[in-house]
Amino acid sequence: MPVQDVIVVASFKAKEGKEQAALAELSALLDPTRQEVGCIQYDLHRSTDDPGVLVFYEVWKSRQDLEQHLAMPYLQALLGKVDELFAEAPQINLLEKLD
To answer: Which residues form the ABM domain (predicted)?
Structure first.
């Protein structure tokens, strides 16, 4: 059985009035994350219905690569700002592709 990529959908809901700050913080993760060895895709999206909802769609080569990403200092710094910027805890979903 071939090894499948790890798919992640991570949703963030900015606090009212913190939408731009949240967008700036999440956008700052794009370049360094895309340079990580196991990163295949790392894209940030905004809801068309609610500009405070920001969603990452991520594809990683392996679970180990994802775990290394989660330990990166720039991601840990963001996690330290969750209470300040976001109305709720991020919703993280790991997915598998179905045929």
So the answer is: 6-95
